Structure formats: structure tokens, C-alpha cells
Amino acid sequence: MLEGLNPVVISGREVLPIIEGGKGISVSTGESSGAFAAAGAVGTFSGVNADYLDENGRTVEQVYHGKTRTERHHELIAYGIKGGIHQARVAHEMSGGKGRIHMNVLWEMGGVVPILEGILEGAKGMVHGVTCGAGMPYRLAEIAEKYHVDYYPIVSSMRAFRALWKRSYSKFVERLGAVVYEDPWKAGGHNGLSNAEDPEVFQDPYPRVAELRKFMNEVGLNKVPIIMAGGVWFLREWKHWLNNPEIGPIAFQFGTRPLVTKESPISEHWKRRLLNLKEGDVFLNKFSPTGFYSSAVNNGFIKELRGRGERQIPYSRKPEGYMTEELPVGARGRPVYVTADDKERAQGWISQGFTHGMKTPDDTLIFVTPEKENEIVKDQIDCMGCLSACNFSNWSQHDESHSTGRKADPRSFCIQKTLQAIAHTDSDKELENQLMFSGHNAFRFADDPFYGNGFIPTVGQLVDRIMEGN
């Protein structure tokens, strides 16, 4: 074991300082989290649209029958509760009473409160903690207190945790299991970059975590661990964090490495793709309908989204300023007004087959093929409210009209659709054309001798390797 790497108390039990990162739809399951717990660490299954099995042991496809978004939203909540309880049960049985089992949810996912409460009610004694990020989960503490589990907020700065502490968490200190610091430049999935931070300028996590610890000590949280998440690969590279009073009790979260294990539910094609990534293949982007930055493999899916943004021009509904050139758009060919240069650019895209101009909420037009326009419109119509508020479809669960009040944005995508597709495919073509979240260190699979000759370890083997510092 790496010198200085000490056990920590998580959710009432001493465990190895290794936390499985919770990864959305059907990617962190009861099987993977149960294996981490069985190895003496902390396993985390995803409570985001979790799968469950029918009486024949087959995964139930989440098909929506409601005619309205609201009806489909209630179906989504029911699926989420049933799937989460199933995954908790699998994890509980696999763990054999070892380690700890946590559930991960996103605060900005649709129906987060009824789903979270429904799973905790239906899986009593099987879930020991709740990890939650993607937003400001003020109510997380009171829900954890209600169901007698610990809570683990995910933050990317001291300021974010301070706001949560002052508004809510100071009233529920006993259930605060740890604070997860997630590096907003290195982590996979959605990232907590603020408007004041440059996505292109990486900041060293050490001073940011030291600042978080200083505040935690000031409010009496000296013994509460910090969990470092995002960009962690070899723990030997973090030796200066161990037994360091500026950092305090510390554990480490691994999100990307657990993808390439025997117990990981992703396809063998996906695992092989991760093993062969190169540095720079993971792309920090802002295409997500959540409005957050996110990190994903720069495949055909991301490139198509980038293309939409590049084929974009501003327009006006009437002639004004330099926007005096008519450009017919839409099925009826109604004119909008653009500059002479932009009209020439648009005509060039149209000649390449991107014949349909779609209006965005920012008074711009993007140009896509007729097939892509039909797909975008259908996905927007089929929305089931998987987010609390969605830029792509303009769904909102916060308003009686269930609308954000803005136009649906065709520059984004249906995140539910693509994550369900990639989680349940065994096709290289589908992998290229669906959203593939990943941490920025995924390129290290290719150089790490542990994965030589395409070796895929069990979770137990991975935990042993990590504890050695490797």
C-alpha cells in the first residue's frame, strides 16, 4: 500500500480511501458499485434513469406512452424509482456487507426529489450515502436527514460549498459525510465551471482544495473528509496531499478508470475505444442542454454539434442596419434579413446540402440537412422532462406551463436519448454517433502498463492497483 494512504470513515464505516464516481444513465450500476464495496471501498450506483430487469432477467427498455410532456415526466419518475431500487438491491447483495454503497443523483435532473425519496424509501438499509452535484443541492441535507443516510455534495470551489453551508448544511452537520471537490477542468461529464473561470486555462486543484479545507476548519468540519474527484489516476502523484494539514482527511474518487473493468456495464467496443484514446481526444464543450460545460470524447456526435454552431449567422425579422438582404427560411420560405456576407455564407452551406435554417433563442440561424432538422424537431416534441430545465426542448419543471419561457434551442440535443442509446449499444457506429462522456485523463489508459495488451481488470484488481499508488 502507498505510504501515507490511510483509511477514512465514510457513511459510518472505515473504508479504503477510494470512491467510485457515479456516472449517469446505466453506466454506474449495482454490479460495479457492489464490487467496489466488496473490495472494501465505496461503490456508487447512478440514480439517474437506472435500469431494472423484468421477470426474465432482461433489461426493461424505457418507452414512454404519455401524450403530453407532463405525462411522460411522471413515467420517467416511475422508471427512475423502480430502477434505482433494483440497482441498490444488486449492489447490496454483491457487497456482502463490506464497504459502503452510495447513490449518485444530479440536482438538475428532472424529478430529482421524488426519485431520490422514492429510492431511499424503497431501498432502506441498502443505501448508505447520497452524492449529488450538477447544481446547488440545498435540500440534499434535509432529505438525507429524513432517510438517515449521509450526504456528499459535489462542489468545484470553496465559494459554492460556503453558500450551501450557510443556507442549509450548517443545520444538518451530523449527516455531512464528506465534501466532494470535483475538478471542473479534468472531470468527465458535467463540470462546475463558473462564468468567471476560463475553460481553456486549467487551475491547479491544490490551492482550491486548501481554500475549501480552510473554510471547513473555520466552521468546525476539521474531521470531515474531502474527496478529490476529477483528474485522479496514479495516487503516487498525489503523495503531497497525504497527511497534509492544509488538505486534511482525504479520499480519492475514480470515475473514468472503473469504466474499464470486468464489472463495468458498458460494451466491449466502448472499453476498447477508451483504451486507445489519445491526449486531446476528450473535448470540453458547452453543447449540453443543461447549460453546463461538459467533457466528452470528440467523436462524430460532438463534431456534428460543432458543425451546427459553425454554420450559424445572426438575422433580423425586418431590415435594419447592415441586415438588409432577404433570406427565405422555413417550410413557407418566409424571409428574414441578414448581411450580404452572411447571405453568401448561407448560400454556400445550402449548396452543400445544409438547406434548412433553424432559428435559435439568440436570434441566429443554424443550417442543417432536412434529415437533421426532422430529427431535432422530433426529439424536442418527444421530450419527457429528464432535466429540471432543458435548453434543447424548453421544458421546465419549475413553472406551471412547463416552459423555460425561451425558444427551444436546436444547437443542443436530447441528452436522455443519446445516453440511453450509448449505454445500451454494442455497435462501433453507435459509439461514434452518441455522446460519450469521459474524464480528460482517459488517454492514460493507452500508456498505463496495467492495461497492456488490452487487459481489463476486475474491480478488485483495480482497487489493489490503486492502493499501491498505481
Tell me, what is the CATH class of the largest domain? Alpha Beta
Largest sheet: 8 strands, parallel
The CATH H-level superfamily of the largest domain is Aldolase class I
Low-confidence stretches: none
Which architecture name of the largest domain does CATH use?
Alpha-Beta Barrel
Q: Quick one: overall form? A: globular
How many helices in DSSP terms? 14
Helix vs. strand class? alpha/beta
Helix content: 25-40%
Total tally of structural domains: 2
DSSP summary, beta strand count: 18
- For the terminal residues, how far apart are their CA atoms? 10 Å
CATH-defined topology of the largest domain = TIM Barrel
Q: Which strand order does the major sheet show? A: 3-11-10-8-7-6-5-4
Fraction in beta strands: 15-25%
Kindly provide the radius of gyration, computed on alpha-carbon positions and rounded to a whole number of angstroms. Answer: 23 Å
Mean pLDDT: 93
Describe this structure in words.
The chain has 470 residues and is of the alpha/beta class. It folds into two domains: 8-277 and 442-467, Aldolase class I (TIM Barrel, Alpha-Beta Barrel); 300-432, no CATH class. Helix content is 31%, strand content 17%. It contains 14 helices and 18 strands. It has helices at 24-27, 30-38, 69-95, 112-122, 140-146, 158-167, 205-218, 268-275, 300-310, 340-351, 370-381, 415-423, 428-432, 459-467; strands at residues 8-10, 13-15, 18-20, 42-46, 100-106, 129-133, 150-155, 179-182, 189-191, 226-229, 250-254, 282-285, 293-297, 312-314, 325-329, 334-338, 356-359, 364-368. The strands form five sheets. An eight-stranded parallel beta sheet has the order 3-11-10-8-7-6-5-4. Helix 2 (30-38) runs parallel beside helix 3 (69-95), helix 3 runs parallel beside helix 4 and helix 6 (158-167) runs parallel beside helix 7. The protein is globular, with a radius of gyration of 23 Å. The chain starts with 7 loop residues before the first strand and ends with a helix.
